[in-house]
Every structure is written in C-alpha cells, then in structure tokens.
From TrEMBL:
SUPFAM superfamilies: MFS general substrate transporter. The chain crosses the membrane at residues 12-34, 62-86, 98-121, 141-166, 178-197, 203-225, 263-286, 298-317, 329-347, 353-376, 388-414, 420-439. It comes from the Bacteria. It holds the Pfam family MFS_2. It comes from Ruficoccus amylovorans. Keywords: Membrane, Transmembrane, Transmembrane helix. This is MFS transporter.
Amino acid sequence: MNSPAASPGRRIWTAGTLTYTLAGVVSLFLWLLAGDFAWMMKERAITPVAQIMLRSFESPDWLVGLLVGSIPAGIGMILGPVVSVCSDRHRGRWGRRIPYLFIPTPFVALAMFGLAVTPALGEWLHQALGEHSPGLMGTRILVFTFFWTAFEIGSIIVNTLFIALINDVVPKQVIGRFFALFRAVSLIAGILFNFFLMGKAQAHTIEIFGVLGLFYGIGFTLMCLKVKEGEYPPPEPVERVSRKGKRLEPLVRYLRECFTHRYYLCFFLAFTLGMIANAPVNAFSIFHARSVGMSDDLYGKCLALSYVISLILTYPLGSLADRFHPIRVGLWATIIYAGVTLAGFVLPNEGNVFFVTFLLHTVISGIYLTGTASLAPRLLPQAKFAQFASAASLVTAGCVMVLPPMLGTFIQVMGHQYRYAFLLGFLISAGSAGAYVLLLRGFYRHGGDANYEPPIPEAENEGLNR
C-alpha cells in the first residue's frame, strides 16, 4: 500500500519506507479498520458465548474461570514474548508482521467452527468411548478444551502482533486518530453483539460461533492481503555465548533488554496500573448496582449510555493525543479517574450516586483507553516494538491472573460492601498517575516532543540505566 509519489504541493505521510498520499492513508485506514471489525466481533463474542456453552454443559464455576480466564492468560505469558521476538527479527517478502497474522487466521476460524460443533462431537465421543467414557459432560468439555486451546493459541499470536503491524504501517502523525477510530470500531462491535446477538446466544450458540468464525476468517484474511509493509533494516546480530548457556540466551537477552532500563520499567508500571485501575469496579459493578436497588435494566441502560458517550469522544480524543501526546492524556485521565473513584467511595452508597459515579467511571476509563492507545507506538523502540509491547502485556497478564481472586477475597472480608471497589480503583489509579509523572520526566530526558528518541537497551547487563 505504498502510495505513488506525490505531486508538488500535495501532502504526504511516511511510516518507515512507506509513503502515503491522502488517498493512500484513507485506503490504509479502511483496510486496517475492516480487519479490526472482524477481529473485534470475534473478541467481543467469544468469551460470553463460550461461558454460555460451558454453562449448558453444567461445568463448575472454577472450571469456567480456568478455561476462559486463567489458561488464555497463561498461554499468552509464554507464547507472546516468543512470537514477538521472532516477528521483530523476521525479514521476508511479505514483511515481518503479515506472515504471523495471516498463517494463524484460518486455524482460528476452524477452531471456532470446532467450538460450534462441540456439543455434537462431544456426544459422538461419549458414544464411541462406551464404558470408558468420562460421561457426556466430560467428553463435551474435552472437545471444548481442545478447540478452545487451539483458538487461544492462534488468537494470542494475532492479538500480540496486530498492534505491532499498525505501529509499522501507520504514519506517526496520525496514529492517535487511527487508534481513536480503532477504539470506535471496538465499541460498535460491542454494541452490535450485545444488542443483536447476546440475547440469542443461549439458543443459537452453534450458529454464532460458525458465522463469526467465517466472518473473521474472510475479513482478517482480506486485510492481510491488502495491507503492505515496507522494508526494514536488518536485525542486529545475535550474540553467541557458551554452549552451556545457549538455551537460555534468548530468555536472558529478552529479560535484560526489557526489564533493566528504568525508563521502560516506568512505562510498564504506568501502562499496567492504568489498564487494571478499572478492574475492581468492573468486577463487582452488577452486584454493587443490585445492592443499592438498581434494576438490571437500568444498569444495562447506564452501560449503554456510557458506550454512546465514549463513541462520540473517540475521534476528538485521538486528535488530542496526536496534538498533546498520549502520555499527557494518560496522566490527566488517571488523575480524573482517581477523583471519580474516590467520590464513589466517600459519597453516600445510594442508587442515584452509584448511577452517576459508575457512568463517569466507564466514560473516564474509555477516555484513558482511547487517549493512550497510541502510547506504546509513540514511546517504544521501532525495531523491537513487538518485543517491548509483549513485555508490557506480560506484566499486565500476570496482574490479571492474580487480581480477581485477591479482589474477591478483599470484598468478602469487607462484608460485601461493594463501595470498597471504588477505593481499590482509587489506589491503583493514584499509583498509575505517579508512574505517569515519572514516565513523563523520562520522556523529557530523552528528547521530549521535538526530539524524542527511545533509549536503546545496552547489550551488556550494566544494571539499571537512567
């Protein structure tokens, strides 16, 4: 998608060796957003529909949480860094990202078809095993686990590198506005699924899995075929060590490069705390709403209203991030969110108060997600973007694995007083704001708005860099 040379006087945009005219930027945006829509329809639908299917198998709650939550996070912590480093170093005629996005796509679609026919396959397996069968529920869960694991492996590869592709091909001058549209597509996909399909998921699980698998396979494949990458400089040579340490060399290099530089540690801390700050309120919002007498219908309308507000704000927020930098948007969003959650904790625990604070919580969370969507592409090293992005995801995934049970235990100890979820949100967001201040200071040290250059980690382990 390298646009033809622009005529004199026409504005051009560049991303590495790629050059775009206005028509080229529009075409690039359309194809990436088309792929994003197919991707987001899958992401929005898969977890709730999978939970409904598992519930129909009479699966215990702990197994549902293990399959849908913990296992994907665990696979991501192992697979994400490996795929990221391999992609950063890959050079080929199709680029360094497209091959890793294109190859898993049909397998993800096939896994979704497999999930669609899981009930029938589970029943066939139960009959085939005869007296050796663990029972109909057991065989269905075995079949589900097989296809679900295959689905998650492919999805994790795609999820890890899709943002890296965007970072490589979208011009930095407009990347904030692109991520605003990216966020808008996500919200639209969520609205469409919840409005049209969620109510039918119980009775039409098979059809939803099958149709969305086909839609994702076609839509994402077309994007991979239409979006073109530029040329990249050769990767830096890999240092060889003694045979004894050879097997651990990639892991040691990954950890040394990602986690021994103070500036990137501040980035990981700000990024992670900002991403999980809304988790305490989200985890218990429906229970909090019921505890103050709010009906599920009013709760749903409050959530839908927040989505509409977030959708309206997406493009202005993207423009704001392009103009003032996402690091500043993130700082102010976390400060405002800290104020909202503190108010949610100290104000009277009543229905009207919860409606307003929950609405503000959701909208400010959306502002943070939209305003900081381009933070990693603006701050991380271009040559090793996927590697550093995977390191940030690694830290976040670790927190996501341990945070829910800790939150549940805390709320239980506090006698199910759900307003304490706002207190936890305040503490995490205040920590995130502090991390953003440190990150902003590091940003100025490395050139600031006019001359920023991401620091390159030293090849040798020299302790924490400044």
